[in-house]
Write a structure and sequence with these properties.
The protein has 538 residues and is of the alpha/beta class. The protein is 30% helix and 14% strand.
């Protein structure tokens, strides 16, 4: 039989690549008409199942294998498992995501708003993160190589609570049993992840009754004398009016969204950042929506509070949203996180994405002028997308800003207010680099956890080799490695390794101090980062 006479079905498989420099996690909705997903396709992927099982979901993986092999009968409790709810899924190609969730783009969600529509925002954010952005001239490889995304699907019936940590539960106790964790806690278990995105939480925070821009009206048609004149149409020419929107659950207060996120990240994953779009609001005198005044005021209050100031550095706010010919409105965080992961893979995690072009047909909405972008960047500290009129409409990031300095509170108390308020301490790329350093040193310590004697010189040799490679790649400034970093052994107990490392990053800050603690008896690894005080050039 000829190949043309057969039915051909494309079966996308996950791409096997080396570990990425920075991985991302997305939590959101993947709607479908029957509520299910292609769980049988996942059950055939031994590589993906091995990665899921390594995070602690061995029972769920074994159950999927048994259901697919037919050695187990379907039970009532398998509905969420067959829908792939709560499972961190490694996604390295958009075709593989479409294979697992084929109706994610077409099926509507249960919540709808005039401005955001009824489609889920997670599928579009996944597409933006894994989008093909061209090829490199020097290597010929696709620029998306190395990007790894973890997707956690949550049920729509749980509403906003599905995206946030439960304040009534003890996360420390639940970490021992991953099945009891919510989606937020499960995202924290992915050790290689450095970015957290919540696109459908942003969609739920859009007010349901927020109107879109009014459609243009046309002039009234002059009457024509005919035997049977046609009815006059004095309405606007365009799509029919949007039907009334059913009332959605009330939006949570800013404190109920921001504080649980930053507190959990600061305590359990100090190396992670959460990208979140600033919610919209509209006053009677406004022609178009503006950043929510309540959210901006809440962020300003947190930035001035010593207890919350150091936790707020784990949140990178993004504004405005994106919209295009096929999307009424969407999250900008997927596009930005994809570029951050790409730049980290190619140029290093210490590089900023500011000024780099974002290859997309979407445009920022509401439009932001440079004056407003500068104001939001300075106060409270927002990463703003702007469209440069002089560069053929190129879309780029104005600057990567944070609401607070990226230093611990102990360092901020030792600095003068006019010193730590400098813009270079509020750079999001510095926080991203510090998180990457934590994860890299954590992996280095785990490699020598059981077979290194405290008097063995190999740990210091491995640390010097690690920072020498950073110096060669341009992450540290200085003509010689001795001018770029300094490693000093700290006195400690017989089973403890302690090093104080001071480095001079290339930009945009002066010095960082790293304390590397390694206890062989207890298996404890700890990496602390702060502001350097020494002089490496001396």
């Amino acid at each position: 039989m000829l190949l043309a006479d057969q039915r051909i079905e494309l079966d996308a498989r996950p791409v096997i690549r080396p570990p990425a420099a920075i991985e991302a996690v997305m939590i959101g909705h993947c709607p479908s008409a029957d509520g299910l997903a292609r769980w049988d396709r996942l059950a055939r992927d031994d590589g993906a199942l091995a990665e899921v099982a390594a995070l602690g979901w061995t029972q769920q993986v074994a159950r999927l294998r048994a259901l697919h092999a037919g050695t187990a009968t379907t039970e009532a409790g398998d509905a969420d498992l067959r829908a792939l709810y709560g499972l961190p899924l490694p996604i390295r190609s958009f075709a593989y995501f479409q294979t697992l969730f084929p109706q994610a783009f077409t099926a509507p969600t249960t919540t709808r708003s005039r401005l955001a529509g009824s489609a889920a925002w997670l599928p579009a954010a996944v597409q933006d993160f894994l989008a093909e952005t061209g090829t490199q001239a020097d290597t010929g490889r696709s620029q998306r190589d190395g990007r790894t995304l973890w997707v956690i699907r949550v049920p729509e019936r749980e509403g906003v609570a599905a995206f946030l940590p439960d304040p009534a539960r003890d996360l420390a106790a639940d970490l021992l049993e991953p099945a009891r964790l919510g989606a937020f806690g499960r995202a924290l278990l992915i050790r290689r992840a450095g970015l957290l995105l919540l696109p459908d939480l942003e969609r739920l925070l859009v007010p349901a009754g927020l109107p879109d821009l009014p459609r243009p009206r046309v002039a009234r048609t002059l009457p024509v004398f005919l035997p049977e004149p046609p009815p006059l149409d004095d309405s606007h020419r365009g799509p029919p009016a949007t039907p009334p929107v059913a009332p959605n659950p009330p939006a949570p207060a800013p404190a109920d969204v921001v504080l649980p996120i930053v507190r959990s990240l600061a305590r359990w994953r100090p190396d992670m950042q959460c990208l979140l779009a600033v919610p919209l609001d509209q006053q009677p005198q406004d022609e178009q929506p503006t950043p929510s005044a309540a959210v901006l005021a809440h962020l300003a209050a947190l930035a001035n509070h010593p207890e919350h100031r150091s936790t707020l550095r784990h949140l990178q706010l993004v504004y405005p949203y994106l919209r295009g010919p096929e999307r009424p409105l969407g999250s900008p965080c997927g596009l930005l996180a994809g570029l951050q992961a790409q730049v980290a893979e190619q140029a290093g995690p210490w590089r900023s994405i500011a000024g780099r072009p974002l290859h997309t047909l979407q445009r920022p909405w509401p439009p932001v002028h440079q004056t407003e972008a500068t104001r939001l960047r300075q106060q409270p500290g927002v990463t703003v997308l702007v469209q440069r009129a002089g560069l053929a409409g190129r879309l780029s990031v104005d600057d990567e800003a944070l609401c607070v300095p990226c230093l611990p509170e102990a360092d901020l108390r030792r600095m003068r207010p006019d010193e730590w308020r400098q813009p270079h301490w509020r750079s999001a790329e510095v926080m991203r680099f510090m998180g990457w350093l934590r994860r890299a040193l954590q992996r280095l310590g785990e490699q020598m956890l059981f077979d290194v004697d405290p008097h063995d010189p190999r740990p210091e040799i491995a640390l010097r080799r690690f920072f020498s490679q950073l110096h060669q790649r341009g992450a540290l400034r200085g003509a010689l490695p001795e001018q770029a970093f300094r490693i000093r052994r700290l006195p400690g107990e017989a089973s403890t390794l302690a090093f104080e490392i001071e480095i001079a990053p290339a930009f945009p800050i002066d010095r960082l101090r790293i304390t590397f603690l390694h206890d062989r008896d207890t298996g404890r690894l700890d990496t602390r980062l702060g502001r350097g005080t020494g002089d490496l050039d001396g």
